[in-house]
Structures are given as C-alpha cells and as structure tokens.
Amino acid sequence: MSGSSFETALRLIDEAHQQDPKKVETHEGPVPYELVYSNKMSAYLQKCDPNASETLRLAIRAQHLRRWEVPRDSYEKNKIGYHLWRTFLKKRQAELASQICLDSGYSEEVANRVAALVRKEDLKKDAETQTLEDVACLVFLDDQFEEFEKEHDEAKIISILRKTWGKMSDQGHNMAMDISMSDRAKDLVMKALNEQ
Fold first, then answer.
1. Signed CA dihedral, 178, 34, 134, 87: sign only
2. Residue 31: per-residue pLDDT
3. Which end of the chain is more exposed for a tag (fewer CB within 10 A), N or C?
4. H helices within 62-107, ranges in order?
5. Half-sphere exposure of 22 (CA within 13 A, CB side)
6. What pTM does this model have?
C-alpha cells in the first residue's frame, strides 16, 4: 500500500462527504454533517488504535459514505424497514468504498478488505471489525445520543443502549464511560447497564 493511494482515497471519501446537503454549525462555520461525522470516527479510531491499518482507517472514514442519498424515510417506519435500510446501506457503502480504493490505485484484495470492514463482517471474531464497531458506538454515544434520546421514549432508548453496549468490546466500554454526557443521558446509560 502506498501513501499516495491512501491520501487519494481519503481525499475522494472526503469529497463525497462534502456533498452532504445537511450542515452542522462548527467553530469554522457550517460544515457538511457526514464530513464532521467521519472526522469524529477517525479521531476515535486514533484513540482506540493509534497504529490502525490503512484498510481500517479507510473503512472508518467511509462508514457513512453518501448515506444521505438513501434517507431513512425511503423505507417503512418499522423494525423491518429499519433493518432493510441498514442492510442496504452497508452493502452500498461497502461497494462505494471499494470502488474508491480501486480508483486510488489499491489492489482488489485491499478494496475487498475495506468493503468487508464497512459491512462489519465477522463482528466479535475480527479485531478490526470490532474496533470499527466500537468507534461507531462511541461516536453515537458522544455525538448523537443526547439528540436521539429526545426523540424516543425511555424504554426504547434503554433497549437501544443495551444493544449498543452488547456490540462493544471491553475497551469500548471503558472509553464510553469516559464520555462527557448530560445527567439525563448518564442516567439512561446507567439504567440500561443495570437492567442487563
């Protein structure tokens, strides 16, 4: 793997993120949401595994690649619809990431590995897939949870927290406990953990 292929792939991924129409306010002004999200994913990966492979670093960065093009409301608003949406997104995002890798000069083997990580294959068996899942869960807890919990009833939130916790490694659990949260969010996390 060459540094130039990695830099090219990162640039292409970030160019795709730049096209996200949803903007969030930052200290630098409005920024596309998926670019902010992918930067947070990369920052948490650096905390979890400072020596992560290029393939994992690319998969982390491509986790929500062009996700806004397939909105949640394009599927039914029920559990089946949610799972169909997530399954389709994983497959699509993996294909897009794989193509970016190939366009950047990576081998098919590397492109396939990045795609497998984006699809989160072999979770709990593959250390890199587990790291990716930990990072995604940490970003959810750090960046999205407080807003998310305002939109759902407590029972659903506790159920989601329990599922999130169950996907994480011990290292992920330890890092999650260090995340700064509101008192309400901390209470919900503790309820979810105490009910396990």
1. positive
2. 95
3. C
4. 79-103
5. 11
6. 0.91
